[in-house]
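Late entry, evening session. Most of the bench is empty. Finally got around to the prediction I had been postponing all week. Sequence below, unchanged from the version circulated by S.P.
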Amino acid sequence: MAKMNLLQAVNNALITAMNDDERVMVFGEDVGHFGGVFRATSNLQEKFGKGRCFNTPLTEQGIIGFANGLAAQGSIPVAEIQFGDYIFPAFDQIVNETAKFRYRSGGQFTCGSLTIRTPYGGGIAGGHYHSQSPEAFFAHVPGLKIVIPRNPKQAKGLLLSSIRDDNPVLFMEPKKIYRASVGEVPEEDYQLPLGKADIVKEGSDITLLAWGAQVEVIEQAAAMAEEEGISCEIIDLQSILPWDAASVFESVYKTGRLLINHEAPLTGGFASEIAASVQQECFLYLEAPIKRVCGLDTPYPLAHEKEYMPDHLKTYEAIKQTMDY
């Protein structure tokens, strides 16, 4: 085991994958000698050469179009979009090409070896062009997988699984916790299953569900609630496409209550899909309405970032409201 922060775990996963398979290559804006804006790709070019880790022009649609071609021809590209907010110029390439190439060709061609890495979310005073959480846009697209780690150990294992998966994967890294803390990470090669939620803590009164940096938020809220005798079950969804509905249903059968927390705006956020599915499957087990604690339906505000964030205090109040229903 080694002590790593989330950035170091991502870097270690990339080194592991590139050592294991010479077809793996990493590229994006400033990822070469500079190591990317957050330094996630530091030292890769020195270690593997400019043929396997290199800078691209500043064109997101070009990065993903190039990556699609590489994947279709048998390479294993790991493309970096510098910020999740910048992924929208590449939306057409991802939605209409990456996700559909296998289907439209009847299985003759595929972009399944492509992994797209991008930092997302707020918490760094980045303003409205460097703080968005766009995961729900892509959750509407069959043919993609969407994976979001919560800590360094998860980041390495899930990224290695994403790179080796036979489907294109959008791997979204919560940049707020890139350097926030360190954790124990196995130095050896290991993978964690995609599409499987992680039961972080078992409980009996209410299910708290989140992904990425918001898992720590619901853990903080749960600690406050448990001082008042409320037993909270905590689930990290890890993958939102596909999402582990069975594990969530099983938890709600037990607790009868569900709170979903995500940083993206409330309207149309992925919590809506989860809530509708749980209501359909678990209606007779529910003791209270499903609660969503999410970002505001506004552009991400620089001056009012703290007011925007669905923090542990908002979550704690929502837990109490649900328990008192």
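Two things to note before I forget:
Residues 198-323 form a domain with the Rossmann fold fold (CATH 3.40.50.920).
The mean pLDDT is 97.
Will write this up properly tomorrow.
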